[in-house]
Amino acid sequence: MFRRFMIIGTALITGLSLVVLPVVPASAHGTRWRVIASGLDSPRGLGFAPNGTLYVAEAGVGGSGPCIPHPLGQICYGATGAVTQVKRGHQTRVLTGLPSFALQGTDEVFGPSDVGLNDSSNLYVTLGLGDDPSLRSQLPPNGQLAGTLIRAKVSKGTFKVVADIGAYELAANPDGGLPDTNPQGLLVTKRGQVVADAGGNSLLGVSHGKISTLAVFPPRLVPNPSPGGPDIPMQAVPTTVTRGPDGALYVGQLTGFPFPVGGANVYRIGSGGKPKVVASGFTNIIDIAFGPDKALYVLEIAHNGLLSGDPTGALIRVGKHGKRTIIASTGLTMPTGLAIRNGKAYVSNCGTCADVGQVIAIPLH
User: Is this model's pTM higher than 0.70 or not?
Assistant: First the structure.
């Protein structure tokens, strides 16, 4: 029960009612925050092209179906996922019709999760699923693209599948648990791509379409939320991956149920693929990035925990000797994506909101 399907959204948790997510306008923070894009459907990961163009993954709003079983009910398909381009102050959806799944009765949506580029024309996108990939056979062809990594030609608006993460989960099942895939965090390198599969609790490498396991994140025992109950296993749920100043891979975890406050770690992937905790005490990490000052920036989707009912997130700077500074919190509503460029943090805000999601720019100094 409660394996690792909770990735984003507060209504997924053991019957909690849907939380209304207000968007705090950037003007509420004076001139320091600036809205870069608005009117987005569940904005998630962000990525900059070398020429400075920003791309935003939009998970969409699901659709009328077909629907497939999910551990918390059913998820219903619609071709409402997209990628938005922000260029010279103008935003345009450059990819549309991507698979999106809404968990019925909640604010949770699975769809385009993250973006990455290795030049200004090749755009890579992870397409989330949050379910058993074998169920994709019940979906139309476009819906069966969920659980894959695609590469798109932005100028043409076309794409093709680079790697089927869901098929790899079924064949290899790196963590040995129930089949579950939800490709989330994406890092594009000169040698290939790196994908954090939040459903499979694994970090995967993709090279010329071939997938390999780079690291596995096992569950760990945490206190039972029921008083007097025994400790329970908590899934890792790795949601984000980036390259550190030392050249190593760093991974942040959301954590699974019971989503303990202070229970999320940042891992460094060392030799042999063994994850090592390099920073701990965070809550529900959704994205991480390193700044030009080599400091680590951590984005929490719910600063007070996903069980708190409070949708306020936080952007935290981890400086020398582990000193932590909250860069922003009030006004961050279920933030879901982070990118750093030219002294600013770009954050996807209200990542579980339809039609009112934003990307905001927050000065780091």
Answer: yes
